[in-house]
Amino acid sequence: MHIIDFVLTMNVLLLGSGGREHALAWKMAQSKKLSHLFIAPGNAGTNSVGTNVPIDPGNFELISQFIVEHQIQLVVIGPEAPLVSGLVDTLANRFPDLPVIGPKASGAQLEGSKAFSKAFMHRHHIPTAAYREFTADTLEEGLTYLDNLSLPIVLKADGLAAGKGVIICQDRAEAKEEFNDMLKGKFGKASEKVVIEEFLDGIEFSVFVLTDGTHYKILPVAKDYKRIGEGDTGLNTGGMGSISPVPFVDADLMKKVEQTIIQPTVAGITRDGLEYKGFIFFGLINVSGRPMVIEYNCRMGDPETQSVLPRLQNDLIDLLLATANGSLDQHSIVTDPRTVASVVMVSGGYPGAYQKGKVITGMKLFEDGMLFHAGTKLSEEGIVTDGGRVLAVTSYGTSIGDAVSKSRSRAEKISFEGAYFRRDIGFDLI
Ligand code: AMP
Ligand code: GLY
Fold first, then answer.
1. pTM of this prediction?
2. Which of 212, 222, 234, 268 has its CA 20 to 30 A from that of 351?
């Protein structure tokens, strides 16, 4: 008897244009379920695994039109901004049966409002730094609170501030000045409300979960390197590299993460009636063996995704469909045991001002690794730089040292004017 393996394939629309999106596109392109992948707007790398479409993820009208015209059967939203501004709500109204990956605006508040996420954690007894929230009306109380907090002090703009809204002050007078500036509009609307919180001392790591709103699956754990300079010095960036797995996140620590953080978070989402079908990114810190939440994001991390997805052996479209239809409990995550390291190449000057349009040479395919594009585009001269973070050079290895040294030597062969990358990704874990 012949058993016919009948696989339904579908057209997928992925929104976003960073390295995270190239990694998501690369992974979905391997799925047996994929018919055609569109990426809006994408970059020079996503175009090699699908078709780029010149639509801004903030343009809900054009996205809706595209869904109809191209018979899209799955939408995956990469970045936070369209989630926070309600793209999933809009699509749910217009296309009630369309699977969409990402929370509705109410759930995206876990990232879109620090005050919301702190209150959520408080309500559901999830370990996080002690905090208070203030507005211009409660400025005086805020200053008194600052008088009584031990140093350093952490100030957070409530809303999305392009990764710049967190200020860590070593000095009380400086904290008061920053607090005042934030409430007076330093980050515009994003800092009309400010969260002041206790400083947590420990080592950070990133945990990613897919949830269908009831069940969840834990993806490979990663660590990212945010500072521009080697040895974790200098300005904060979007992320200069990542590795997965993270050696200090052992079974014991992961059990605590699952019991004290992941389970109460997903249960809290269900109990609060947040409609959440998508990724949850837990920015965690290990404080003397006790995991605590630094922040939630309502999407995958960048550049963590570039190291996490190469270790995921499941069919990603299968997992995303199960996320959308509430059947994640019927899947098990299968992980590649190898280590993966991603080294991010950036434009000279980043995270400050930088130039675009520099021709990139020396890019080639590797057997045991990937080259994920971020700020790149195709021009008449070839592939040119088009952003601060340009490429992630991702390699498999037998250890962190092995994977990082492969990525480093591959990055050395790629050039564009002003290129810079950190040579010490994973240094604290080797
Ligand atoms: P966030 O945008 O909330 O992830 O904050 C950015 C970075 O600031 C984090 O990755 C941490 O390195 C640091 N940070 C935020 N909150 C705290 C805290 N309460 N204690 C120590 N470091 C923090
Ligand atoms: N790598 C941190 C982030 O994506 O926010």
1. 0.96
2. 222
